[in-house]
Write a structure and sequence with these properties.
The complex is a heterodimer of chains A (587) and B (285). By secondary structure, chain A is of the alpha/beta class. Chain A has 25 helices and twelve strands. Chain A has two domains: 274 residues, ABC transporter involved in vitamin B12 uptake, BtuC; 268 residues, P-loop containing nucleotide triphosphate hydrolases (Rossmann fold), CATH 3.40.50.300. In chain A, the strands form three sheets. In chain A, strands 8-9-10-5-11-12 form a six-stranded mixed β-sheet, with helices on both faces. A four-stranded antiparallel β-sheet of chain A has the order 4-3-6-7, with helices on one face. Chain A has a two-stranded antiparallel ribbon with strand order 1-2. The longest helix of chain B has 30 residues. The radius of gyration of chain B is 18 Å and the shape is globular. The chains are: A alpha/beta (587), B mainly alpha (285).
């Protein structure tokens, strides 16, 4: 209720600004803020959500501006068509820049985009036949009613509002969670099948499109453009706006954008120091409040809202969990019923053979224990099966399906879920959001479909939310759904990881030392949960050091030493095996 | 033609030196600083100021240039890197070094002015042409710097500690290396070397406040071409880029310099991301 009133007031204020502003100069500043916002709103998705730093967006702004002036001015195209064409050209440039560089560490991308920004102004100067060199180009106007300062303002506000709506949709549905996940924990994002490279590329292309639109609007609202308007320093301004507003928020950067644009424009003498000042603000914010003011205020508000933190034990509701797992499986296709197999897999690290021709078969509906001394290759084997490492020899198969050459994401899509030795959660997201990430393999909605909030993303959102909530309630985290994952206690983090894995509706779940750091009572609870998972027909691979727990819980046990299998069979046999006793259990 | 080649080698020397400076900082911190090119800018302007404006001898100019570079290096580690490295978030150090680099550039622009000014001649030399000192200084200095750094890495304890930290900073710390102090030292060295490269190439670049960003980019391309961590690679990468730019300049005109440089970078990213002399350790995300 309060939210809709605020929204209505905000819209009224923005729409009515021309009547309040009185002065045409102020109105021009407001229009410019709107123009910048068209670019910043989507750059924020790239920088604030996926954590990818594009330093050269000003280059895209310039291309958009020149495309508009050349197409609508020199060639006499319809201005709307020229505006759109500018967006499309910039989207294609984004694709061209992103394709080779987004796979590499972020600095390569930052440098390449910086370079792009520099080239654009260089070429704008050089290619006089097209750009008129340093003299610049006259920008055409839009047809009535958008050819007056007021009209142009409303046009910019309309486009800006629409773009904001799209980014808001992207942020609140599954795509938003995926973006934040790949920023905060690449490993976790991979484990739920989020395609890292493709997601970054799509977001960058989208932000390129809107930067192109912003360029056209920039040109027409300045009515004249020259190459020196697009210096790289303008790019610093975009960053500052986003980083002040806070990453991971949709409207936060707007405040930054407005304040920063208005200050030098209103206080004339400041303009000279503008860039220095932006640099200073950026440095201070990065050092003192890396999450930005938005995250700071959000964090404080969350702290006020929540009851003081007290220790609570996680009490699962096993009946509910059983129901949640079975129900989740009804949602999609039935279980394949085949085994997950590692056949004579080998992995070397330099001269060390960490896993040496190990074969292991994980059947549906059984708990398979994997034990052995430290450094015996347990976690390496798990990484080979889940696809984080590639094998140097041997094969990984799901039934008859060859998995050996595939990466993490395709295996996650085929129903192989896992947890980690140290829980890999997306710390900035809530408990519910973290569990919902497990629903990513079921998301069929594309990026644009989500941006327009079509029926499919809405339906998927509802279904995945219900499934994740049921899992969390079953596993005993039902009363901390809204809490940020980073403030959870250790045990709760471990259980949350299991809930996320279960939300993937897996056929197999690989648990890497899930009992680490748990109390005896909590380990017993974990045993109950694993029992429920097994009874639902899921195959569980359990890497553990608590041997009592392993022998009690597992149907079969494999023991590794120095990368080789030394014993394998029923718990009662393995626990008495002399070799296992000698190297691992002790007499 | 000789002039074009010599010009290419000189530019290559400057880019190579910048790449070496990247390497020094990267070894101890795994940070590729956006401010790397700014060291040369500061070195060049400080020298020009001391020699041309204060009319002091060249050696004092050189000393001031090195001190300024060292101080700037030390400050960048202390301000923009130390706190961030602990958080190990790439996102943040790109931003913090970018912010500091912008501030220094703008501050120099406000103080020194935005027009490039000539740099003093380093030695008396009557004739110009291919044997002009403005070409030979950066070429000789870059080779000396690369050889000196290699000797430093291989022969001195401190250099070996740098190598150890580049392999595994955590393990180095566990063996009693004061990693914070070493990182700080490496940034001071980087600052001094960067300022020296600005001194050596000053007659090519002029004393120009806006030199840093473009130079940082060219130095990075040289680094990426040669492979991060390799001194030989830095020089070879630098010379390749320098030659490319000199020939483009000669045949097509100066306005396409950057376009060619970037084209080279993109091509490299596609074909061989780890660089010519780099090991395949680029972390794919």
């Amino acid at each position: 209720m309060i939210r809709s009133i605020t929204l209505a007031l905000g819209i009224a204020l923005v729409a009515g600004l021309p009547f309040i502003a009185g002065n045409l100069y102020y109105l021009h500043i407001a229009t410019m803020i709107g123009v910048y916002w068209v670019l910043i709103a989507t750059l924020n998705l790239l920088v604030g959500f996926t954590g990818t730093l594009s330093v050269g967006h000003v280059g895209l702004l310039a291309v958009g501006a020149y495309a508009f002036c050349i197409l609508a001015g020199t060639f006499g195209w319809n201005p709307y068509l020229a505006l759109l064409a500018g967006g499309v050209i910039c989207a294609l440039l984004g694709l061209l820049l992103g394709l080779p560089s987004l796979r590499l560490p972020g600095f390569y991308f930052a440098m390449l985009t910086l370079a792009f920004g520099l080239i654009v102004s260089e070429l704008a100067l050089a290619e006089q036949w097209l750009t008129n060199g340093s003299v610049g180009l006259q920008a055409p106007e839009f047809p009535a009613p958008f050819n007056t300062p007021h009209g142009l303002y409303w046009l910019v506000v309309g486009i800006g509002g629409f773009i904001t709506w799209m980014t808001w949709n992207l942020a609140r549905f599954m795509w938003g969670r995926a973006m934040v996940a790949l920023r905060d924990s690449t490993v976790a994002a991979q484990s739920v099948a989020v395609p890292i490279y493709r997601t970054k590329l799509i977001v960058f292309v989208f932000s390129g499109f809107s930067a192109g639109l912003a360029g056209g609007l920039y040109a027409t609202s300045q009515s004249y453009i020259t190459p020196d308007a697009f210096v790289v320093n303008v790019g610093i301004y975009f960053f500052v706006a986003i980083i002040i507003g806070g990453r991971g928020l949709i409207l936060g950067p707007f405040v930054g954008a407005a304040v920063l644009a208005a200050l030098p424009a209103l206080v004339g003498p400041l303009a000279k120091y503008g860039t220095f000042f932006y640099g200073l603000v950026l440095l201070v914010v990065v050092l003192v409040i890396p999450g930005g003011f938005g995250e700071l205020i959000g964090g404080l508000a969350a702290r006020l809202r929540q009851a003081p933190h007290k220790h609570t034990s996680v009490v699962p509701d096993l009946e509910k969990l059983r129901h949640a797992i079975t129900h989740a499986h009804d949602y999609g296709n039935a279980r394949a019923g085949v085994a997950l197999e590692a056949e004579k897999v080998t992995r070397r690290f330099g001269g060390l053979v960490a896993v040496d021709a190990v074969s292991l078969e994980l059947r549906p509906g059984e708990v398979h224990g994997l034990i052995g001394p430290n450094g015996s290759g347990k976690t390496t084997l798990l990484n080979l099966i889940s696809g984080y490492y590639s094998v140097d020899g041997g094969a990984i198969r799901l039934g008859t399906r060859e998995l050996t050459g595939t990466g993490v994401q395709p295996r996650a899509r085929l129903g192989i879920a896992r947890t980690f030795q140290t829980p890999k959660l997306v710390r900035a997201l809530s408990v519910l959001d973290n569990a919902m990430l497990g629903g990513w393999p079921d998301v069929r909605s594309g990026f644009m479909e989500t941006a327009f909030a079509g029926p499919r993303p809405r339906r998927e959102e509802r279904e995945i939310r219900a499934r994740a909530r049921a899992m969390l309630e079953g596993i005993g985290l039902g009363d901390v759904l809204g809490r940020r994952a980073e403030v959870l206690e250790h045990t709760a983090q471990r259980f949350l990881e299991i809930a996320r894995a279960l939300t993937m509706r897996p056929d197999f779940i690989l648990l890497d030392e899930p009992a680490g750091g748990l109390t005896t009572a909590e380990i017993a609870t974990l045993g109950d949960i694993i029992g429920v998972i097994r009874d639902a027909g899921i195959g569980v691979l359990l890497v553990e050091h608590h041997t009592d727990f392993v022998f009690r819980t597992c149907d079969r046990v494999t023991t590794l030493n120095l990368g080789r299998i030394i014993a394998h069979g029923l718990p009662k046999d393995v626990s008495r095996d002399p070799e296992v006793v000698r190297v691992y259990l002790g007499a | 033609m000789l002039l074009v080649i010599v010009n290419g080698l000189a530019l290559g020397g400057l880019y190579g030196m910048t790449a070496l400076v990247y390497n020094v900082m990267y070894s101890t911190s795994k940070v590729l600083s956006f401010g790397t090119g700014q060291f040369a800018m500061v070195g060049g302007i400080v020298t020009a100021f001391v020699v041309l404006n204060l009319h002091l001898p060249l050696l004092i100019g050189l000393a001031a240039c090195l001190v300024a570079g060292g101080l700037f290096g030390w400050a960048s580690e202390w301000i923009a890197v130390r706190r961030i490295v602990a958080a190990s978030d790439e996102h943040l150090w790109v931003l913090s070094t970018l912010a500091l680099s912008t501030m220094v550039q703008e501050a120099m622009g406000l103080w020194w002015g935005t027009d490039p000014t000539p740099f003093p001649r380093l030695i008396r030399q009557e004739f110009a042409g291919a044997w002009d000192q403005k070409f030979w200084f950066p070429i000789v200095f870059s080779v000396v710097m690369a050889v000196g750094l290699e000797l430093f890495y291989r022969r001195t304890m401190t250099g070996k500690v740098f190598i150890a930290m580049s392999e595994d900073s955590f393990a180095a710390r566990a063996r009693g290396v004061a990693t914070d102090r070493m990182r700080s030292l490496s940034y001071v060295i980087a600052g001094v070397l960067g300022a020296l490269s600005g001194f050596a190439a000053g007659q090519l670049t002029f004393a120009d406040f806006s030199l840093g960003i473009g130079l940082g980019l060219s130095g990075f391309i040289a680094l990426a071409l040669g492979g991060i961590g390799s001194s030989l690679g830095a020089l070879v990468g630098g010379v390749m880029l320098g030659m490319m730019i000199a020939f483009t300049d000669h045949y097509f005109g100066a306005e396409y310099q950057k376009t060619i440089a970037i084209g080279l970078l993109v091509l490299l990213l596609v074909v061989r991301p780890q660089g010519l002399f780099g090991t395949n350790r680029v972390r794919h995300v």
